[in-house]
Write a structure and sequence with these properties.
This protein is mostly beta strands. The protein has three domains: about 20-260, Jelly Rolls (Sandwich), CATH 2.60.120; about 260-350, Immunoglobulins (Immunoglobulin-like, Sandwich), CATH 2.60.40; about 360-440, Immunoglobulin-like, CATH 2.60.40.1930. The protein is built from two helices and 32 strands. Strands 1, 19, 20, 21, 22, 23, 24 and 25 form an eight-stranded antiparallel beta sheet that branches. Strands 2, 4, 5, 7, 12, 13, 14 and 18 form an eight-stranded antiparallel beta sheet that branches. The longest helix is centred in the middle third of the chain and has 5 residues, at about 165-170. It is elongated, with a radius of gyration of 28 Å.
Length: about 450
């Protein structure tokens, strides 16, 4: 049984990768206004509230196949009227998506089935207390055709003559009061079109067939979309009604808004064999894997390994990596890479690995390389160090280090842009220690 040593461990939760602009789990209580970046821009302030009573899962709404929800949720009441927005940074000038979980608590305070209804979520050209009045991608709601049901619709922008069929479609679906739905909407500024999905298929990298598409609004599109708004609009107790919203995500891609790669924990633990890194994902989409990156002392970030991902999955996944050569105060981060080459970094965690116990010359990374690679090594005591590179004939082509260095972890960068492809050797001499390793330059 291996002995476990004391370690400094950091954890972080609910980090989403890729093109997600913001994720809103509604961590808070009381008024939404002034909390987590939400700003009132219309109506009486401090009326939209966090909701903490028991719901689908704890104080959250939940939907099968989506990551486990965080925080609480918010409540819109038929007796209230308030508009809040949260900034989209950077602002988007082409297409933007938003997704959320929705539960309607009562249909009696919604507008009748034969009316246009009211909109409760949309994008705005500006942000903050005075975001302007260009509202696009408006998600509408009204009573359904049967008791205890409601309809959802979409409107691209204002202007023109609007009809029930234009906003909701010719045969709108009746959705059940008291049930949680997964809603996605998109606004495309380039063609001034809004698209709505209700309970779309998960785990797809491209858009599935929409529930409804609308471009009947004739007002000119905005120059950008700079915020997402939630709207509680009720005249004489009728309008957006009584509903709950949770788990908002805003993104520039369908894949990320519908099922992001969500990292729910990342930890470092010092063991007798080295630093043990472990992390878990709640869901993955198009995930090729994780580059494990390390930073020791004043050195640059270097990649020390790669852990293959699980592509697309809605199941929780666990990963680990053992760093046998860490010493001193060490920082780690993960670079999550999609199959299409897009990537995103995790937060950084830190652990004190202490001084090296022996001389170590690590394999260069990357290898093969073109044109640069990093060579790392460790010194258990202060030493006179020489790190040199030789070609296949034994001719020295570079001296990377020559001088005295303190005990600890060190690294040197080797740039072979002036050399030909082939096999090269690097040799470390430190005190009475000497070791040579092989590397490949592939141009």
């Amino acid at each position: 049984m291996k002995k476990t040593l004391t370690a400094f461990v950091l954890l972080f939760a609910a980090a989403t990768y890729g093109q997600t602009i913001f994720y809103e789990p509604f961590n808070g209580t009381g008024n939404l206004n002034g909390s987590n970046g939400w700003v009132n821009h219309s109506g009486t302030t401090n009326q939209i509230q966090y909701e903490t009573s028991p719901s689908d899962l704890g104080a959250n709404l939940s939907y099968p196949g989506l990551p486990a929800p965080q925080g609480n949720r918010i409540r819109l009441d038929s007796t209230q009227s308030e508009d809040l927005n949260k900034e989209i940074s950077p602002a988007v000038t082409d297409s933007v998506y938003a997704s959320f979980l929705l539960k309607v608590r009562s249909a009696t305070s919604l507008q009748p089935n034969d009316q246009l209804g009211a909109y409760f979520a949309h994008f705005i050209q500006g942000a903050g207390a005075t975001p302007g009045t260009i509202f696009v991608g408006r998600v509408h709601i009204k009573r359904g055709s049967a008791p205890g049901t409601f309809n959802l619709g979409i409107l691209n922008t204002a202007g023109g003559t609007q009809t029930v069929a234009g906003i909701y479609g010719t045969s709108p679906q009746d959705y059940l009061v008291g049930q949680t739905y997964f809603v996605v909407f998109k606004y495309n500024r380039l063609n001034n079109t809004a698209t709505l999905w209700v309970n779309p298929s998960l785990g797809q990298t491209t858009e599935p067939p929409p529930t409804h598409v609308n471009n009947t609004g004739t007002s000119a599109p905005p120059s950008q979309m700079a915020s997402l708004a939630v709207r509680n609009s009720n005249s004489a107790g009728v309008g957006t009604g009584n509903l709950e919203i949770d788990e908002i995500r805003v993104s520039r891609s369908w894949a990320e808004v519908s099922l992001p790669v969500e990292l729910v924990s990342f930890a470092a633990q010092l063991t007798q064999d080295g630093v043990w890194l472990s992390w878990r994902t709640a869901s993955e989409l198009n995930n090729a894997g994780f580059n494990v990156e390390r930073k020791m002392g004043n050195a640059d970030w270097t990649t020390i390994g790669f852990v293959r991902g699980n592509g697309t999955t809605t199941q929780a996944q666990s990963y680990s990596f053992l760093d046998r050569t860490a010493s001193g105060k060490v920082q780690y981060r993960l670079k999550q890479v999609d199959f299409d080459g897009r990537f995103e970094y995790s937060n950084v965690i830190e652990v004190d690995a202490g001084l090296p116990k022996r001389f170590v010359l690590e394999q260069n990374y990357p290898n093969p390389f073109n044109p640069s690679t990093t060579i790392a090594y460790q010194l258990p005591v202060a030493s006179d160090v020489k790190l040199e590179v030789f070609d296949m004939l034994g001719k020295k082509v570079a001296t990377l280090v020559s001088g005295r260095q303190e005990a600890g972890a060190h690294s040197a960068n080797f740039n072979a842009s002036a050399l030909s492809s082939g096999i090269y050797f690097y040799r470390l001499q430190a005190g009475g220690f000497a070791e040579t390793k092989k590397m490949t330059l592939a141009k």
